[in-house]
Specification:
This protein is an alpha/beta fold and 482 residues long. The protein has 13 helices and 23 strands. A nine-stranded mixed beta sheet has the order 3-2-22-18-21-20-19-10-11, with helices on both faces. Strands 5, 6, 13, 14, 15, 16, 17 and 23 form an eight-stranded mixed beta sheet that branches.
Length: 482
């Protein structure tokens, strides 16, 4: 099975590949016999983790469900591709036992064996820094101490490392005093603490946060950084352990497939892939999609930056539509490189200011005995995908000698069904818009990681919102039995 999403460039030959192997690709693309004759209990729009959770829960409860998905695969902004026997996570990747909704599902499906991304003492066990035009080699502990100090200074907004301002990170607005900090950009907060950080410490925290936020520091909301810090246990080590350390050995697509397959096994799920939604009409007694399908309720899981591409009738509330501009500000890039040999397995790099890359680190060994490096940075517009990949490799290989064999990536910014990576908010956004984004519109419920209360932007946040929407629909429509 293969998906249209993603690209793979062989650097030596220049051969560009699409239709990458993915167990999340669904064949046949539909199981509908006559798409216009049946009225469903629920229509779910979107087959990311929010949509899959809602489909699974509602189908298991015995409701008739129709899943509509614009792509040819499940997973949304998360999918795994296999190239020459090695798995590459093109979007959302890392999981942790401190992500409650995700770990519950991992336990349910037997996915609790985890694979660490990073190891020490393999090959060149050091970090390369490129700060303000100066290239240096830094030992791992030195870089750790610099990063830890910078995070602690940045996030200690109350003398208690943020515990007082954000005591309950799954309820980020719990303390109304947090709004003061929510109005700041990361750049403004850095200006507040500039006397406490050296130039290199300032550069390292901005390089790290460029990977997290996917935008410049003046556009990134400091509140989102503080929220991640709190979710990670108010320590830098906790932020990175929960956010980019452990992944699933068989890949995210195999995990997502468990949700879909369980729903399908109930006999209550119909589906249609390659089916973009352009119109959703709520008539009071039922909801109609694309003037074709009808249901009592609809769960819309479209990402924040895609909501305004669908015509809703009646129109969405002004507060919800206002949130789509600027919406999710994360326009960051994620690239995978296969580089010759294993010397860079424990190596990492951080760069600031950001041109293309801002970070990269060894993330596994391929069957060919080479090193897999995962990189984050900035997206640019290119007339052809191969130019994008070559530009990235040209900039990244300035950091260290390496022979790049392959480049594997998916441009989430250019993806019409994503228009950005995991969700990050700008300053002065969350207190204004989060509640409006979570609110339903009559028979239409909205479920997406982009407005999760807890691990927003993570798989956990997607499962959170999908499960809540399914529970609300189940209570309204009453008990069902298969």
């Amino acid at each position: 099975m293969a998906t249209r999403d993603g690209h793979y460039l062989e650097m030596s030959t220049g051969a560009l590949h699409q239709n990458l192997k993915c167990v999340g690709a669904i064949e046949p693309a539909t199981n509908l016999v006559d798409k216009a004759t049946k009225e469903y209990d629920v229509i779910v729009v979107g087959a990311g983790y929010s949509g899959l959770t809602a489909c699974r829960d509602l189908s298991v409860a015995g409701f008739s469900v129709l899943l509509l998905e614009a792509r040819d695969r499940i997973g949304g902004r998360t999918f795994t591709t296999e190239v020459d026997g090695h798995l590459y996570e093109m979007g959302g990747t890392w999981v942790h036992w401190n992500q409650p909704h995700t770990y519950r599902e991992m336990s349910r499906y037997g996915f609790t064996e985890l694979l660490p991304s990073h190891i020490e003492n393999a090959g060149n066990d050091y970090c390369t820094t490129f700060f303000n035009g100066k290239l240096q080699t830094v030992d791992r502990q030195t870089l750790h101490d610099m990063t830890e100090k910078a995070f602690r200074v940045l996030c200690d907004v109350d003398g208690k490392l943020g515990r007082e301002i954000m005591p309950r990170p799954h309820d980020p607005h719990y303390n109304p005093e947090a709004k003061t900090w929510e109005q700041l950009s990361v750049a403004q907060r850095l200006d507040q603490v500039k006397g406490e950080l050296s130039d290199d410490e300032r550069a390292v925290i901005q390089a790290r946060l460029s990977s997290v936020c996917g935008t410049s520091m003046d556009k990134a909301g400091f509140f989102d950084v503080l929220r991640w810090w709190a979710l990670g246990g108010y320590t830098m080590d906790g932020v990175y352990e929960t956010g980019d350390e452990f992944k699933l050995p068989t890949g995210q697509s195999s995990f997502a497939r468990c949700f879909f397959d369980e729903a399908l096994e109930t006999g209550s799920l119909d589906y249609s892939f390659n089916t973009p939604v352009s119109e959703i009409q709520d008539e009071g007694e039922s909801v109609i999609v694309n003037a074709t399908w009808r249901a009592k309720r609809l769960v819309c899981t479209l990402p924040l930056n895609v909501l305004d591409t669908v015509r809703f009738e009646p129109a969405l509330s002004p507060s919800k539509m206002e949130a789509t501009n600027p919406g999710n500000i994360n326009q960051g890039a994620k690239f995978h490189l296969e580089v010759s040999g294993q010397q860079l397995r424990s190596w990492s790099a951080v760069c600031f200011p950001v041109v293309r890359p801002c970070s990269g680190t060894g993330d596994g060994t391929t069957p060919a005995g080479n090193t897999h490096i995962v990189c984050f940075g900035a997206n640019k517009e290119f007339p052809a995908p191969e130019e994008d990949a070559r530009d990235w490799v040209e900039d990244f290989t300035k950091l260290h000698d390496m022979e790049v064999k392959k480049t594997i990536w998916h441009n989430w910014s250019a993806d019409p069904f994503a228009k950005g990576a995991w969700c990050m908010f700008p300053p002065d956004f969350s207190f204004k818009h989060l509640e409006a984004l979570q609110q339903r519109s009559d028979n239409i419920l909205f479920a997406n990681s982009d407005w999760a209360s807890g691990w927003r932007g993570f798989i956990d946040g997607a499962i959170e919102r999908g499960g809540l929407a399914a529970r609300e629909v189940s209570r309204e429509l009453g008990p069902r039995k298969r």
